[in-house]
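Make up an example, fold above all:
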Amino acid sequence: MNKKDNPRLKNIVIRVNDKEHKEIESKAGKLGLTISEYGRQLMLKGAVLSAEKKDSIQAGTGIDRRTIIGLANNLNQLTRLANQRKELPQIESLLKDIEKIIKEWS
């Protein structure tokens, strides 16, 4: 949901000691989430769902999650454009570049 459509205006406060705070912060960090995101997912869903750790993406490539999301959005836009204009050779070239990047991550 868009932040503008449904802003988060309510606070939930929980009290933790230093040890608990460090443990929660560590678990959230390992998943690439803020403490708020981690707590929200845990309270709403009963579990924290994350496909990949933020560090695992950055470790070998220096590319962060936002960059990957941006690339995915660009790919979707190019795919729609290619379907409208039937420009497959350019798309095939871009897909080869993307496959090369994915191989470097592996």
Notes: Residues 65-85 form the longest helix (21 residues).
